[in-house]
Design goal:
Elements (H helix, E strand, L loop, with lengths): L4 E3 L2 E2 H19 L3 H13 L7 H7 L9 H4 L4 H12 L7 H7 L25 H14 L14 H4 L3 H4 L3 E4 L4 E4 H6 L3 H7 L1
Helix pairs in contact: 1-2, 1-7, 2-5, 2-6, 6-11
Length: 199
């Protein structure tokens, strides 16, 4: 089991499980659709996955005074998992509500969010990250999230070598009409009701 920390006295996996449990209760109380319920659970499970970076673990243990923003580091993980969910439900490939919720769980999605981090050295992942991702996949499957594969499978090595702040500036082409948007633009154009519900 991964011994990564969310806080000095709290294991990251325990924190994520507690937040997923709360998200499930809220989703049931709000009677969310199966799609939005699933997205809320994915966001809850992965909201702090960026804390599995070596610099963040050093920060929690007070070995360093700062760390790369963990919500931004989550961009290495959340969109790839959310793509699997979108395919399962047959929803729009531009529907990244869980990703937007994770990215903005400490800051609003402004046009300049994390732009100052584009020139920063990207974080390195802690060796326990794969174990953490498998544990997350297990409890997500246990609450009915249809991943089919653990989150480690859809991760691309190229993404992990890139500063996650650059992902926000990726240009994506969507059909019909071959519309081009940056990933930041895709997140900013989400239906506000769906984004707010998942967040």
């Amino acid at each position: 089991m991964a011994q990564l920390l969310a806080k000095p006295d709290t294991l990251l996996i325990d924190h994520l499980k507690a937040v997923v449990d709360l998200a499930g209760q809220l989703a049931d109380r709000l009677q969310l659709s199966p799609l939005l319920r699933t997205k809320a659970l994915v966001a809850a499970a992965l909201h702090d996955v960026g804390k599995a970076a070596t610099d963040f673990q050093d920060y929690v243990l007070k070995k360093t005074s700062h760390a790369f923003p963990h919500a931004l580091t989550g961009l290495w993980f959340v969109p790839e998992v959310e793509k699997v969910v979108n395919r399962y439900f047959g929803t729009s490939p531009q529907a990244f509500e869980a990703t937007a919720a994770v990215l903005t769980h400490h800051s609003p999605l402004t046009p300049n969010l994390y732009k100052t981090h584009r020139d920063c050295q990207p974080p390195s992942l802690h060796p326990d990250v794969k174990t953490l991702l498998h544990e997350i996949a297990k409890f997500l499957n246990g609450v009915g999230v249809p991943l089919g594969v653990p989150p480690t499978i859809p991760l691309q090595q190229s993404l992990r070598n890139m500063n996650p702040a650059e992902i926000l500036e990726f240009e994506l082409r969507f059909r019909p009409g071959n519309e081009i948007k940056t990933f930041r633009g895709v997140l900013q154009s989400l239906p506000p009701q769906n984004f707010a519900t998942v967040k």
